[in-house]
Structures are given as structure tokens and as C-alpha cells.
Amino acid sequence: MEIRDEAYAGLPISAPVIDAHTHTGNSSYNGWYQSIRTDAEIIALMDLLGIDCIVTAPHSLLLGDMELTNGTAAASAAAWPGRIYGYIFVCPQRGMDAVKAAIDKYSGNTSFVGFKFLAGYHGPLACPEYDYALDFAAEAGCPVLCHVWGWAAEAMADIERAVKDRTSLKFVTAHQGGGSAACTDKYVKLMSDYANLYMETCGSLGNTYSMEDYVAMTGEDRLIYGSDLINLDPRFDLGQVTFLTLPDEIKKKILAGNFLRLLEDSQLGRIGCISTHAV
């Protein structure tokens, strides 16, 4: 049965699925989609949809609390091994010493597979604290997932600055480059100049481009599935991929294969065997 047929039938997707953009735990903000709260509820939803594992930076990142955020991710990963992984969250507002301490503490935890930046919320991407984390990630060979939303002009300059001289850096820009077609256009242009840039899908409800458009614009090897669970219902972006009018081999790359390749030479944690199906 093809992936599209499984989705139409309401069955869990049998191909490997990694949700590379999630936030567990309660949010301090109201108004987002949050009908589930606990890790157990999240795992149940993952089982229902066929999501093998998630990579998370818990909601306390909004307030810039590195210790709470990373500690919560570590606890969730320990309680649900192989199903929940973490990003090392760094907040430049806490200062260089705190950023270095967080990286030192959690980079040796094999449940953490990369970094998460909430740039914009916590200041510009172009700052010494983010530079330190970017240098670390480039040397370690792990991915960095960076929030970008609607501030494309400034963001594109900062992203180019981040990757231009860090050719080994694997930089994944969230929300299709900013959540709108105009932002996506600017980001895709930048992607054409830098092979170490990748696009993540979540929040595509607000973009007039289709998933087929993203594949055509970025190439099938540089698009990564993420949902923004629990802020957003993961079914939307998962459906965008599973119902693609493209071959299953391309869907498998977006759903898991492309992210797994980002981890192949990483010195941080790795995602283990998530399915008997070939990616």
C-alpha cells in the first residue's frame, strides 16, 4: 500500500516519520492549537499517525529558560527512549557563560541531536552567543533548526552571515523560510547559493505555496518534515506530505530520510532504528 493510500484509509504511516520541529509541555501563551499536553498523549497521537519519533525543544524556551527547557527535553527523552529526542536550546539573552554551560552540559547527552534557536524572540541571529553555538554545531556536524517568521529581509542577511564561512554547518530554517510565499522566495534564492541550507515545513497553512512547490523549489533532498506539535496539529503538515502527488521515495526523504542524513557524521546524538522500512 502506498503512503497516500495509508493516509486516505486513516492508517498510521508505515514509512519512517521524524517530526523535526516540536514543542512539548504547556505553553505560557494562549491561542495556539493545544488539545494535548502530556508526553503520553503526544506518544498516543504519534502512534495514531505513524510518527516514529519527534525532536523537541519544550515550550519553556519561549521565556528563554535554558535549564528548564533542556532539562525537560532530557527527562522526556529518558522516559520515552527512541520516541523523543531533544534539541539543545540556547538563548543569547542569558549571556555567553550560560550558553557555554548549557552546551557543555547537554552536548554529551546522546538524546540531543542538534540545536534549536528562537531567533527574533531572543534577539538577532547575528550575535556572539549564537555565533558560539553555530561554531560548535559546525564542528560537531549536527543540525541547527532556527525559527524565522515574517521578518525575511533581516533574517536572510543573518542566515547568509551564519552559513557563508561555515561550510560544514547544517542550517535548517523553520516555517518554509518565514511562513509566507514572499519569505519562501527570498529563502529559496539563498538556498541556491548555499548548499548547507535546508527548509523545514511547519506552519505551511499560512503559505500559498503547495508542498509540491517546495519540492520543486528546494529539491527533494533539502526539505524536512516538521509540524510545530503541540502548537499546531501535526496532521496538517503530515497530510501535506503524505498526499503529495509525487513518488513515495520523495515522501520518504521529506518524512525522515533527509533529516537522518543530516545526522550521519554528527558527533552529537543519533536517531536509532525507527522502522523496518527502508528510507
Structural overview:
This protein starts with a helix and ends in a 17-residue tail after the last helix. An 8-stranded parallel sheet has the order 1-2-3-4-5-6-7-8. The protein has helices spanning 3-8, 39-49, 66-79, 96-106, 128-140, 152-164, 181-193, 211-218, 234-242, 248-262, and strands spanning 18-22, 53-56, 84-89, 112-117, 143-146, 170-173, 197-200, 223-224. It has 10 helices and 8 strands. 41% of the residues lie in helices and 13% in strands. By secondary structure, it is an alpha/beta fold. The chain has one domain: TIM Barrel, CATH 3.20.20.
The oligomeric status of these chains comes to single chain
How many separate structural domains?
Answer: 1
CATH architecture: Alpha-Beta Barrel
Assign the CATH class.
Answer: Alpha Beta
Strand content: 5-15%
Mean of pLDDT: 91
**SSE series:** HEHEHEHEHEHEHEHEHH
Give unreliable regions as ranges: none
Distance between the termini: 16 Å
The total beta strand count reads 8
| Lateral strand order in the biggest sheet | 1-2-3-4-5-6-7-8
* Shape assignment: globular
Structural class: alpha/beta
